[in-house]
Design brief:
Blueprint lengths: L1 H8 L1 H5 L5 H31 L15 H10 L1 H8 L3 H21 L25
Helix pairs in contact: 1-3, 3-4, 3-6
Length: about 130
C-alpha cells in the first residue's frame, strides 16, 4: 500500500523530469520495503513469542496464548529486551523480505500497480462509443 502511494506521489519524477523509471521504482520499493519491514517485524516477533518460544512447565503459555498480553508484557519489559529485540531482524529480512521485494518488482512490471483500473484492450474500451474516430 505504501509503495502504490509513493508511486502515485512521485510519478512526476519519471513523467516530467525524465528520470529513468527503474531508478524511481527502485527508490520507491526500497523505502516501502524498509518501512514495511520495520513495521511488520514487531508483530512477527510477538507471534514467535506466543507460538514458538518454549512454554512454561506443564506446557502452559506465559501469556495465555494471547497476543495482546504478549504485546503488553513486551512493552513493560522493553527496557530489558531492547538490545535483543531486533536480533534476528536481518534473518527475517533475508527469509521473508527479499522474496517479497522481488515479487513486488515483478508485479509492478506486470502493471499491477497502475493508476487506472481500465482494461486497455477489453471490449468495453474498444467499443465505438469510446472511439475518437466515430
Amino acid at each position: 500500500m505504501y509503495y502504490s502511494w509513493l508511486k502515485g506521489k512521485l510519478f512526476f519524477l519519471h513523467l516530467y523530469h525524465d528520470f529513468p523509471y527503474n531508478w524511481i521504482k527502485l527508490f520507491n520499493m526500497t523505502s516501502a520495503f524498509v518501512v514495511g519491514s520495520l513495521v511488520s517485524y514487531p508483530f512477527y516477533y510477538i507471534r514467535e513469542m506466543v507460538d514458538i518460544w518454549p512454554k512454561e512447565k506443564g506446557g502452559h503459555c506465559t501469556w495465555g496464548n494471547s497476543y495482546s498480553q504478549a504485546i503488553r508484557w513486551l512493552h513493560e519489559n522493553l527496557d530489558i529486551l531492547f538490545t535483543n529485540f531486533f536480533t534476528n531482524f536481518w534473518v527475517h529480512m533475508i527469509r521473508r523480505g527479499i522474496p517479497t521485494f522481488f515479487m513486488l518488482w515483478m508485479l509492478d512490471n506486470a502493471a499491477f500497480f497502475t493508476n487506472s483500473m481500465d482494461v486497455h484492450n477489453g471490449l468495453e474500451t474498444m467499443s465505438p462509443i469510446y472511439m475518437e474516430s466515430v
